[in-house]
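User: My instructor asked us to take a sequence, write out its structure as tokens, and then describe one feature of it. I'm not sure where to start. Here is the sequence I was given:
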Amino acid sequence: MADRRNRCNQVLLLAYQSFGLVFGDLSISPLYVYKCTFYGGLRHHQTQDTIFGAFSLIFWTITLLSLVKYMVFVLSADDNGEGGIFALYALLCRHARFSLLPNQQAADEEISTYYGSGDATRNLPSSAFKSLIERNKRSKTALLILVLVGTSMVITIGVLTPAISVSSSIDGLVAKTSLNHSTVVMIACALLVGLFVLQHRGTNKVAFLFAPIMILWLLSIATVGVYNIVTWNPSVYKALSPYYIYVFFRDTGVDGWLSLGGILLCITGTEAIFAELGQFTATSIRFAFCCFVYPCLVLQYMGQAAFLSKNFSALPTSFYDSIPGLACMTLAFVTTWLMPLIINFVWNRNIVFSVLFILFFGTIELVFFASALAKIPKGGWITLLLSLFFTCITYVWHYGSRKKYLCDQHNKVPMKSILSLGPSLGIIKVPGMGLIYTELASGVPATFTHFLTNLPAFYQVVVFVCCKTVPIPYVPQKERYLIGRIGPKTYRMYRCIIRAGYKDVNKDGDDFEDELVMSIAEFIQLESEGYGGSNTDRSIDGRLAVVKASNKFGTRLSRSISEANIAGSSRSQTTVTNSKSPVLLRLRAEYEQELPRLSMRRMFQFRPMDTKFRQPQVKEELFDLVNAKDAEVAYIVGHGHVKAKRNSVFVKRLVVNVAYSFLRKNCRSPAVMLNIPHICLIKVGMNYYL
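Assistant: Let's start with the prediction itself. The structure tokens for your sequence are:
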């Protein structure tokens, strides 16, 4: 009983917060829906049946698209609680091989959040339709472009909607006061600045701040709606019948069809309900919308219809040409096209249900979409231009990143050639640990051999680190690390794959080196006990094992403050032999004084626990690991530059050499993202020609 009460309280709390974050655009749409609907030729059809028909269209649009489509179907297609178009694409990529980046591993499917609880679709045979899309690269590319277009529409709406919503909210000041339009614009700008300043306070505080405002607003417009119904035309309830939609189009013809762009604005912000799902829960959003938002909006629109049916001259004539009536419809249309794939591939329903879904909702939205196209010459082109710009940026980034990954994969070094060099790899081994960052989840990157070719010396322990994004929102901390061995045990070469979800924040902070060492130590022990990786000493690229590194201090290794720190001496006094020259040691000491965080990284040292090992070489390997960590840790980051060949077509050279190169140079470098100190960083450049 107590648990049930707590769950109810949690739902009510989240529902309350959702008013301040989710339903803002949808709740203020009554400010401009009717004036936009009656902007064009529909102004010449000012009859009661026309007003009732417009309200009937608004009512059934909100009911079918916002209530039925989103509340019933779309909110059920969440990705571990996350919503939005990208979440739908991630769901599809997990349940079918739709991803164009070939970095999937079987071990990723063992993540606890990869499949939903009770999901048995992973063991079902693949359908012919699914196999057709998986084998056809063009189909997967088309699906990706569809997702990018939808994502670009979200960005476009985010650019245009705040200004339009605020301007519409205070537009009444022009008619009710003596303020001119320029003053209203200045007030709108001030409000926008204030709203964006509040963003840094966090979603939780912003939601609590605006929730009572939105609740008061909805109650107010509902009350006004009831007053108008009772005062002006109580018979407006008849317009709930879809018969008035037929009368509307019969009387207005083409003018009525063109007015659908204004009707469409009544669902502005509906997609945001699904996009913001990760901040709340589907239950809380459904409760808030069905029990409060939906009734208040219906009463307000009905009240406006009752008032306008007796006061035709009060129809506003102002219209904002830049209202995004096209961006919203395109975004809803993309969701409608993705949902049948979810129904068939993720929910494992018969394809008939997918066809029925797209026929029903797709037909309705297609009519609205065709009407919205008429707004392109009147300002809708801004929406298309912005969306095209964002789509090009995202696709160029994906195209260049994929080509770079394929080049890395094509140029990776065969393991046999590495192993044929022997445990020393034909180079001079120096004390320390080298962390080689690569995007490859298997094989040896070409940057490693390129480095050895120019400088035939390396650290005694080599770890290939791959930071990889998997198509789930979050990866549990205890399942992030995949550890494996490369070559025989005497080579002291390991592989570490750090998995993160597409909404995970980089958590590899100052404790990363310690967590990595503990994870490898745990793997070594598990391997000796017959769990996880391969037991054969001659394994080429051993199996990877999930290592739960958190809270493992004291299990395999003991961690304590190093003797050098206790004595207050410099790092050069450590008991482990350091290969650096006195000049480099002095420079390092000066750098550590300027960057205390680096000193904190080296503050602790590890030692194997004084326990009995079944195999003596296990303790020896653990000692080699901790000694290498105490001596030096260096980060080797490969910089692969992709360039188009001189004889390539102009478009390819423009995309690769100009657009993608510009994006690469202006994004955060791997060293910054991985929080790597400059004194420990070694960059290796590689050029790839396409």
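For the description part of your assignment, you could build on this observation: The chain has a mean pLDDT of 80. Try explaining in your own words what that tells you about the chain.
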